[in-house]
Amino acid sequence: MPKKIRVSVILPTFNEAGNIIDLVEDLIHYLSQKRMSFEIIVVDDDSPDKTGILARKYFTKNHEVRVIIRKKDKGLANSIRTGIEAAVGEMVVVMDTDFNHEPRVVPRLVEKCQKYDLVIGSRFIPGGGMADKKRELLSKIYNKYLIQPILQSPVSDNLSGFFAMKYEKLSKLEFDKIFYGYGDYFIRLIYYSVAKKYKLTEVPSFYIERTYGQSKSKFLQMFQDYVYSAIKLRLNK
Asked: Where residue 206 sits, what CATH number does that domain have?
């Protein structure tokens, strides 16, 4: 049996070679500062820019960092599922690897997760926000007037993708119903967590501008897909 640790941080990556080393080092710094036992799992979809190979080589002597390079069934939600299934932490943290999700917030998510089952890093509560104000306004309107009413969700940021969750609670959800597609997996994660009557809360998260690489999000297609996912969940209810 592997030694039980406090938190597993899962980093799904694709073409993030310019960010991954700094991100992992920042996570190590902030988690060590709080004296948390942890592992960091980089799950790379065989990036053309060799993100996974770079991380594996750089952290080869650091046993707190594991790198998984996936050759098939690629995609964000599948990568996250792979990381969760490999995790041994009592709590699981999932975050983006482009520095949209700030590493310094991770210990706060973990600490809050002692009293809650699912803790979400939210842009739309006091203290949260986005450096890109136009995108922030559009995302806020989309969440508040489309996703939230359709799902009747208690969460203000249903598209965050930045969260901590007790592994015990996460493992009781049906992964096949949640982890497919792109960021819409997070809508389903919230929906099924609420259905299980899990305790949810949000902490502020501020999205800074990307400094390396290009966003993989295609916003119009993404917004259409997410509304479809929300409507499908509501109708199936």
From this structure: 3.90.550.10
CA dist 231 and 233 (Å) reads 5
Instruction: Report the distance separating Cα 217 and Cα 124, nearest Å.
Output: 20
Cβ neighbour number for residue 166 with a 10 Å cutoff: 20
Residue-wise pLDDT tens digits, 48-104: 999 999 999 999 999 999 999 999 999 999 999 999 999 999 999 999 999 999 999
**Residue 105 DSSP symbol:** G
Q: Which residues pair with 233 in a beta bridge?
A: none
Q: Domain limits at 44? A: 5-236
Distance CA 6, CA 88 (A): 9
Tell me the pTM.
Answer: 0.91
- Tell me how many domains the chain contains: 1
Q: Which residue has the tokens 């999205």?
A: 207
What is the residue whose two structure tokens read 């969440």? 143
